[in-house]
Structure formats: C-alpha cells, structure tokens
Design brief:
The chain is of the alpha+beta class. The chain is 16% helix and 45% strand. The protein has a domain of 72 residues. The protein is built from two helices and six strands. Strands 4-3-2-1-6-5 form a six-stranded antiparallel sheet, with no helix packed on it. It starts with a strand and ends with a helix.
Length: 103
C-alpha cells in the first residue's frame, strides 16, 4: 500500500491511497526525517529500520511512499542467536589463533 505525501511549508500532508478522504499531518524533523502519525505507522506496520521506496513529483510536491517487503535493517530480532556456541571460548584467544593461521 502506498501513501501520497504532499509537502507544505513545515508540514507534510499524508493521504492513504485507498482512503483519500482521511488526511493526517506529518512533520519534518530535519532534512532526513519525517515523523508520521501513529495511525499511519500502525496501519503500514512500520518498524525502525524498514526500507521505504520514495517517488517524488517535483512539479506539485507529491511524494509516494511504498514499504519494501522483506527489507529491514533492524537486526534486534536476531540478537543473541548462537551465543551458546561461544559460551566457553575466550574471544582474544580465538582471534589470535585465527590470525596466526593467516601467515
């Protein structure tokens, strides 16, 4: 599902493509960040690190945002995987042993 984002002076108007009669305000935090309304984030199931594609129309200031399925740079969900493998291993000894094999 895409969103249409219309740029204003210091506000961004967001229109859901399927629900154009519902409009919400978003705010420009800085040149790289836009704060979306909670209901939009929840509806699109946005999470930190998710990738969005942005299409801009410079003539009338419209942006289209699309969630890229399966693309997320948030690795918090895999934190700790495999930690039991390294339970009894001294990290410095391991690195030293590996580096000695390079020569």
């Amino acid at each position: 599902m895409a969103n249409v984002v219309k740029i204003g002076y210091n506000k961004v108007k967001i229109l859901l493509k399927k629900e154009l009669e519902h409009m919400a305000n978003a705010y420009v935090i800085d040149s790289d960040s836009i704060k979306l309304p909670k209901e939009i984030s929840e509806k699109l199931k946005l999470r930190q690190g998710m990738e969005l594609k942005v299409l801009s129309d410079e003539v009338d200031g419209v942006l289209i945002l699309k969630v890229v399925e399966g693309k997320c740079k948030d690795f918090s969900g895999i934190k700790g995987i495999g930690k039991e493998i390294w339970k009894d291993v001294d990290a410095q000894e391991y690195v030293t042993r590996e580096r000695s094999e390079w020569n």
